[in-house]
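pinging the channel bc i need a second pair of eyes. not urgent but kinda urgent?? the chain im working w is below, pasted from the shared doc
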Amino acid sequence: MTQIDQAEDIRAGEELDLSAVDRFMKGAIPALTGEPEIRQYPGGASNLTYQVDYGDRSFVLRRPPFGKIAKSAHDMLREAKVMQALKPVYPYVPDIIAICDDHNVLGCDFYVMERLKGIILRQDFPKDLDLNEADTRKLCLNVIDKLVELHRVDAKSAGLDHLGKGAGYVQRQIGGWSDRFRKAHTDDVGDFETVMSWLSNKMPGDIAQVVIHNDFRFDNVVLNPDNPFEVIGVLDWEMATIGDPLMDLGNTLAYWIEAGDEGPFQMLRRQPTHRPGMLTRKEVVAYYMDKSGFRADNFDFYEIYGLFRLAVIVQQIYYRFYHGQTSDKRFAAFGHAANYLEKRCQRLIAASSL
């Protein structure tokens, strides 16, 4: 059995009040006994994820980051309710155990869900996961299939159609992310104006209105440790909504770094898409379109949008570090990452036939 993903020591400044967590957990799950042990998952730069253990019983707690955050961001209650609605029709969603909107507990909204014990592929394969090229391809296709399956969910029957705002999703995304970038801009990062102008001028109409994840990556997928080809969970539903499926795919490909990509892009890699057997970005697009039935004659807009959106997310985090709202040293180089992503977008724009 391949090594199960494990939490680690809690990062300084992100500790939880142990007694408050214990009181809440025992109130929500009366059968719990003993004292909790809390550790933290290392991945992610947005919401914080903790493993809460009571002996052999294990749970996951999700809360917003510490420090000042945007008013509409990190909505834990929304994320938990989306997961509850999706679970009956998309079985890869973890069960929600408890939701807390009482800020007297931890000073924020948070929720507790079941812990799915499995493999999470982060920057590289675990040392004991030895897949040949053919098996790596099989795993890759199985993961993409789960995105296709999500985009087939009937939003209305799942009670999620209220998340959508109707036609104009693409337009709202370009306008919204452009506005967020301008608000988070710092003097040491490029202005992205040529990128935002190009996206605004090249916007296609919506392909469809479906349930989208908005952050579908390998490190948000849980694999069965006894059969690593089997996806048993999809995590991090913070940005899930009703929207355009090709925009969702563009978001996914922003993180899809290939073995032949240039060095600065390789430094941003956080999933093992560089391994022999992994599909290239072009192969992912072709496979997804064939399986889903959603099509576009030219994918350039969606690829560039995904990279721009990633740059905005990176810049929003860097803005907090730049202004001393967080001291997490992981974010010190995010300004350099945003600058690189601007250059990458500009090169793709120059090469595009749109």
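so Strands lie at 37-40, 48-54, 57-63, 96-100, 110-114, 210-212, 221-224, 227-234, 241-243. and The chain has two domains: 18-114, 133-351. — does that match what u expected or am i reading it wrong
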